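tool_log.txt
---
The assistant was asked to compare two proteins side by side. It first ran the structure predictor on the initial sequence, then on the second. Raw inputs and outputs are pasted verbatim so the downstream comparison step can read them without reformatting.
(1)
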Amino acid sequence: MMLTRCPSCRTAFRVTPEQLKARAGKVRCGQCNATFNALEALEEGAPAMPPAPPAAEATPLEETPPQTTPATSEDAPPPETLATEGNDAFVAEMWADETATTISFTKPPPARWPIVAWSVGALALALLLVAQATYVFRMELALLQPDWRPTLVGWCVALGCELPLPHKPDLVGIESSDLHPDPQAKDLLVLAATIKNRAPYAQAYPHLELTLTDTRDQALARRVILPADYVVGNDGLRAGLAQNADLAVNLWLDATSIPATGYRLYLFYP
């Protein structure tokens, strides 16, 4: 008999050379289920087996059917049991094959702070994207949601930006125009025009381009007229041209040195 000891729980077992030779020394501890090489854990100077007590008369016992130890797996044969030191019921089970059993480990739960950090970062980026989109498309938002306009104007004031009015040139037109000398001042020309906003919302005032032409419709002079030239007051400029509204424009121009016989008038948004 030889003595080997489990390196995990330090339980000692008696083994025979035949048992170790059968499985190359691989055993499983019946106390802690740890696997180890019994050959490497052999201890020298193992105590001798105690002498057997003298035989005595014993009352015959009823024969009990032998109990079998369940196998470690469905395909493996019943494991061999090794005698242990003392009367403890610890068993070292021989390995059923030459391959080591896979030992599963319980992984600790992942730390929560990376998930929280990623969540906060993603939320911050989403809010930044929404703020950027609101800034870039603030005019369109005010057009689609007129009730939002005061709030958007307040944000623009805080950020130092402007909330421009819509400018759809296809919904603004010149209904009528006329260029004639001023009856009271022959050296001045009077431009009278009517601008109409056909949009269902207020729009920015357009720029006007006046071109003076000769008898062959060749351009002699050109002038761009800004909204501030025909709209009175900054409040009127900020309010814009009201929805479905007409605006009468009257301008006096000094063109005595230009022999113009005709004109062209356009509107546009820069």
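(2)
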Amino acid sequence: MSQLIGFQANPKLRYSEYLPWVISALVFFFLPDYLSLGARVWTYVLFALSLDLIVGYSGIITLGHSAFFGVGAYVCGILASKYGLTEPLSLLLVSGLSAGLLGLLTGAVILRTRKLTQLMLTLAIAALCLEVANKATSITGGADGLSGVTISPVLGMFRFDLYGKTAYLWCLSLAFIGWWVIRRIIYSPLGVSMIGIRENSARMLAVGVNVYARQLKVYTFAALVAGVAGALLTQTNQFVGLNVLGFEPSGELLVMLILGGVGRIYGAFVGPFVFLIAQDYLAKQFPEYWNFGIGVLLIVVVLYARGGILGVWDQILARYEKKH
């Protein structure tokens, strides 16, 4: 419960919190060849923020968060390719609400369990969604994926181009909105109660907190955000593959959070950036062994960087402050 001491509701932004957005603006102007990769990074930042909200801040164990990401991706793709709904903002809204509804329905069951049972149920939900998508070939394309996805220009003016400019700015904008909303939740009474539940749920029950209701609320919202991230991936790729519902996205996302720092909002920024940049570089240099490089990186961080990369940064700052 020590993390609740010194809590301040919705504190003012520190200057350092502007840094990711300043860097992203510089990338747009000075690294145009990497805008497509940048769009993917910001999509996964939003996805990672949703997972960190339930794993890092709420203590809910899950390995099936890809279910919501995949549902958002498929709802967006199906509506665009089969039903002609191509307006980006409407697609994000419907996809997010669909994933949120799935989160509400599944969370109502999952959150009544604990530990290993909870973990296995989240995996089961993701596996069921994967199997449904695989069998419903007339709607989802099955193992061949869903192609023919067409997305209208953003706000009727900005068309998704081959250079990734619109995709980058669109993903950046949604990631900013997601970060701002999640930051406010974390520093709200709901957020601080979730940290208390993570630290000691029995004590929170004793003081009259409805643990189940609050966990369900946060779980549903995190599912909604993950669905929006999945829809973003569909809009920028204009294709949906079965891999969005597999174990791989959930596993990779946990690796990203561990690299950046679990339970630290900016760990969801650092982790996807380091993971996807390393993945892109290693896949080009060592196409057959890039997974080995990622594994070595993760082992080094777990063994020598307590709290992830941000934990190392905190240690450096602490030593600097002691000397001065």
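---
observation on (2): The CA atoms of residues 36 and 164 lie 5 Å apart. Residues 16-244 form one domain.
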